[in-house]
Automatic annotation (TrEMBL):
Transmembrane spans: 62-83, 90-107, 119-147, 168-188, 194-217
Compositional bias (Basic and acidic residues): 235-245
Full protein name: DUF3159 domain-containing protein
Pfam families named among the record's database cross-references: DUF3159
Keyword Transmembrane appears in the UniProt entry: yes
Keyword entries, A-Z: Membrane, Transmembrane, Transmembrane helix
Record keyword Transmembrane helix present: yes
Segments for region (Disordered): 1-24, 235-265
């Protein structure tokens, strides 16, 4: 039974406003889960790199490590396709692995398997910071369609824009801190140590950024559903046309055709 089906004398003791706040948090959690792939998406980003460094640690064979990482990435895509699930997160993992394999094979340096991903992380960190400074926080651009608000928050929902700005700052600074750890290791450490540290830093910074985003957005004003607004406008236009048609039928006069005038008797 929905809340609309319940009698008005419902004895629910939920404090006023708490239900709405809980709904907002639930919607935010669902949107973040959809946007970032949830637990499964995290696993798909970790497994290829983990397999690469594990095999390389044992036998120092760049080719075998690279082939294994690429094979498991493709297998994850096949599994998603077989389950008719979204493949965007699995495909992003495949592209990252492919670039890493190409770099490593070209240079012959196993550490270069991680370089494309590190450069992507650095670029993403800068994108979060720069877009926030420009007044268009990247996290808002990413999550806007998920919340069905598109970019309405930029001009119509200042509280939500502020929350997106805080979230983008969090993502940018967390990713920059991650880069500050990884790049020195790339330059001065060996492949095995770099690989294990990178695997260890895959999930914790990501979870911290997602949690902060959830905190900021859960406290922000509700998103403006621009899709619902457009549907409402279309329904209103349709109802107005039907009303005019009904009035014309009742008066016995034909509707005026656009661009034409009825002759005077």
């Amino acid at each position: 039974m929905t809340s609309l089906d319940k009698p008005t004398e419902d004895t629910d003791q939920t404090p006023p406003g708490e239900s709405g706040e809980g709904d907002a948090r639930a919607v935010t959690e669902a949107a973040l889960f959809e946007a970032f792939g949830g637990v499964r998406g995290m696993v798909e980003t970790v497994v290829p790199g983990l397999l690469f460094v594990a095999i390389f640690t044992v036998n120092k064979d760049l080719h075998l490590s690279a082939i294994a990482a690429l094979a498991v990435s493709l297998a994850l895509v096949v599994v998603r396709l077989a389950m008719k699930d979204t493949v965007k997160h699995a495909f992003s993992g495949v592209f990252g692995v492919v670039f890493g394999v190409v770099f490593a094979m070209f240079t012959g340096n196993a550490k270069d398997f991680y370089l494309p991903g590190m450069l992507y992380t650095l670029g993403l960190a800068l994108a979060y910071i720069v877009t926030t400074l420009l007044g268009v926080p990247l996290i808002g651009v990413v999550l806007g369609p998920v919340f069905k608000e598109n970019l309405s928050w930029r001009t119509r929902n200042p509280g939500r824009k502020k929350a997106y700005a805080k979230s983008s700052w969090a993502w940018g600074l967390i990713l920059l801190a991650k880069c500050a750890i990884l790049f020195p290791l790339y330059w001065w450490s060996d492949t095995t140590r770099l690989g294990w540290v990178l695997v260890a830093l895959k999930i914790p910074p990501f979870l911290l950024a997602v949690w902060l985003t959830w905190v900021f957005l859960a406290k922000a004003p509700a998103p403006i559903d621009v899709f619902a607004e457009m549907e409402a406008e279309e329904q209103a236009e349709k109802a107005e046309k039907e009303r005019k048609a009904a009035l014309a039928a009742e008066s016995g006069e034909p509707e005026a055709m656009p661009g034409r005038h009825r002759r005077q008797a």
